[in-house]
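Researcher: Last one for today. Full complex below.
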Amino acid sequence: MEVKILSAKFDIEGANKLEVAKQHGAYANLDRLFSMEPADVIEEVKKSGLRGRGGAGFPSGVKWGFLPKDTGKPVYLAVNSDESEPATFKDRYILVRDPHMLIEGIIICSYAIGSHDTYIYIRGEYTTQVKELQAAIDEAYEAGYLGDKVAGHDFRVDVTVHRGAGAYVCGEETALLESIEGKKGQPRSKPPFPAVAGLYDCPTIINNVQSIASLPYIIENGADAYRQYGTEKSPGTHLFGISGHVEKPGMYELPLGLPLLEVLEKVAGGVWKGRKLKGVIPGGSSTPVLTPEEAKTVTLDYESMAQHKTMFGSGGIVVLDETVDIVKLVKNLINFYHHESCGQCTPCREGLGWMKKITQKILDGEGTMSDVDLLRELCDNIEMKTVCVLSAACTMPVRSYLDKFRHEFEAYVTADESSVAEAK
Amino acid sequence: MADKIKLFVNGEEVEVESGKNLVDAVSAVGIEIPHLCYHPALGADGNCRMCLVGLEEGGPPLVPACKTPAQEGMKVLLDAEHIRKIQHDVMEFELINHPIDCPVCDQAGECKLQDYYMGYDRKDSRMTVPQVTKSKKLDFGGGVVHDQERCIVCGRCVRFLRQITKTGELGIINRTDTARVNIFPGRPIDNRYGLNVVDLCPVGAMTSSDFRFKQRVWFLKKVPSVCHGCAKGCSITIDHNREKYQDDIIYRFRPRLNQQVNGYFMCNDGRLSYRRENEGRLTQFRLGKNERDMLDVITGCNKEIAHSRKTVVLVSPDLSLEQMVSVKALAEKLGATLSGFSDGYIKTGDGDDYLISDDKAANRKGLEILGIDSSRKSFEEAMADAELLINFNNDLSLSYDESGIRSLLGDTRTIACSTHDDELTGQAHFALAISSYSEYAGTVINCDNVLQHFTKAVTKNNELPDVCAIAAELGSPLQNAGQAYAELQRAIGALSEYQPADIPAEGLNLNDSEAANVTA
Amino acid sequence: MSDRSQLISTGEPFQFDKERDAEFERLVKRYPTRESMILPALWLTQEQEGWISQEAIAYIADRIGTFASKVYEAATFYTMYNLHPMGKHHICVCRTLSCWLRGKQEIIDYMRDELGLTPGKKTEDGKFSLEEVECLGHCGTAPVVQVDGEFHENMDVEKFKSLLATLK
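Model: Here's the assembly. Have a good evening.
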């Protein structure tokens, strides 16, 4: 089931080095690129149907089209390498195993959108990865693929790596821009959208690492070649991360559209230890959970996920076996989102902490049915009332656990009530 | 005038000014969109989420009104059930970690949380888990005391210090529900406008060490006035009260919105200058060192005046126009030399390009408009052979040191009409207590030629005469401030169509009226 | 997140060493505004000292030409900045979803039982400090432990024991 488009060089020893990467086709497309008109590059990417691989799935070519023309201001490209959504670990492979694919993608994108300055925003936790990425960039500068004349063409591209420092919210594109500007990573209200007023108030395109890294293949082989993978509306391949209770967790490149359970079975070796499946988180921890029954009919693409009232997200699939205590899992999730709330909007800032404490109260055996109801109600009260979707990233999955596994919450509450009754 | 546009709020058509955000646009026609973080002087931040409104047709269904420009034909939902629910929910979130210590909170009575709880929440607390705890009673410097637990992290204070004073002493530290406002250690609030953060704070998180615990705000009488701290003449509200068995005193000055003068703010010096209205006041009438009835002293003064072969009348540049007119009439009547010499009121370099003027006189423009000579030369020449100086509250100690005053006065007899008791009034042959600007109504012109009228705020148990009354007693043909105002209307063309009460709250800008039409 | 507002003062003035000074000057040219240097400068400080003191924050603010409150905000917002000295070896254990599902708690429990070390604390000899952190992006090889910035994947108590033994 696996294909090797993005991951073609991942298993090649030393492919992170320019010399080896070039032997395997890195930077081979630049002459062709510069012979094209930027508008044609955008058109080709639009045709390919490439969708933003950070989680939102917005068509990349369309996004580039939002840039206003001739503003007299520089256009910035920000590469989102903050992948912080729990269960997401795909971009890391690109940074470490084939960074030159990313750099080539940056050159392609820069040329298409008329940008000369790129900032790669990499999460602070990627301590070793940032060094490897920087080493690749240094090599690219030395070889003339970056700098004033990219590969001898009259086009400048400068790339700067900007390290985050432990803030999930900086994966939100405007928080990311704030962070590059030296501020706290607090998302901006939109409008204005970054394409119009982004980094340093200039037109800015923000794309995920994987989206950018997909460009060399599309330019080399054309949109149609890319479209031979995946589905009509979700073309191409994706670096899926499979984690949790499976025999063979890991990163796998797969075309979009494959049946979820089949992938789990054939690619990831099925549920570990011969246990039964309790649920699947399909696209990172913020996506609503699927029950085994629901999982049967899901395929790995944006449309099927939406039909099942969940999301493709980042493609980070987490498998839950029958032993998982859902209430504890929910506590773990809320902990995360509460910890990562930027503290800006009232409902998220105050509400997530409240939800966390209520869940703890239930776990401590001190909860009541009305606490369970309150927890469920707070999901509605917080969601979509805030500048960004961080709060929704918490409330959407928590709501799904409450709705699909409510009996587990009630068990904590009634266990306590019956023990109280016994004591009397 | 800005263009008008029509939009719909709850289905009803309203006409509003274009170019404003929804909060401001509809508030001008009396519709309140609740908001906490938004402040017109600081721009929209959008963090509190209290101003979320619905939009029917087109655009996102839910938008923060502070960030949304009012547009023609917009259909705004404000009292729809789902919007009321959001307002309630946001208030619930604001309050779950709030200490609700209103009984000991200075903000009680003028607190947005209280107002909005009554307006939009009114439910019992559902908070059954431990609250977030933070620090209290933090001394932020500059007279600002902070309570992190009361704070709703709206960031108004932070934005004020970054955008307006550009001193940036405050930041919002941490994230999530441990976010809190703080100073960087060792870099306290240190600017001349810092106390505005107390007004800006919509809740009781920022309190003034000067006002804390002094008075419940609902006891305060609020009277619009004009600050006399410098020539800028910021519009203010005087908050005063007479406690049982006590005298009427002022508890605080607060800036009063005036886009023509000071916007929403005022400086700390001006704000704290209320103290001078309460303290150090001259309340006696004295012959030499001895307290006498006012009439006795007036009689003495009039005898002195009759005997004097050369009299100099000195006015303070702080007096109201009415008072200046009265004193001018007095001087003319007496054939005395009139001077407004007050160089000492000007502290060169003290001012800035915002709300603080070098000139600490409230009405120097008044002297100019009335043609009162203020030069040092003519004042000192007149003083050289003067037998009597009648001083209407001009603080000579600002212009001369001790020996300078001694040689200036020589053996000139002095009548000191003064608001404050100091060494000079102590040495005067006649001392007459007069009311200060919080105790009379009057008109002043600021350094930018904006004329403002202020009303009487405080009524002392022992009411003192104002300068107009004293001048009349000493022989001015103008019997009171009313007559003086009529005289003033003749001098300043722009005033001819205004009675004092009709002068707009934001004042009259004499630069763009027929005020050039001055006949002094 | 716990409160990070309490900064520690060393009582000594801070400045970049020669190497960081040069790196600061090199990096500042990469950005159109000096304020963009806030995060990089905090990183340089942490590289140099292992943690970030009150004096260092003031130094960065003054060096960049911005308000200390802004640098203070960033230093407390971003949780990877250490605002107090860490142990000689700083151990981060991922506590989020996939690592939690695959047994990170056993490693935490081991440190508590064997070293008396709990999250947010240091061992008495100052050799180890422990922090439970949010997702480290190694979910496919969970549980993951990061020691002094190096990742150790597919951990269990046995592997962790032998890892500890290599740390001098």
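Chain A has a mean pLDDT of 95. Chain A touches chain C through 54 residues (CB under 8 Å).
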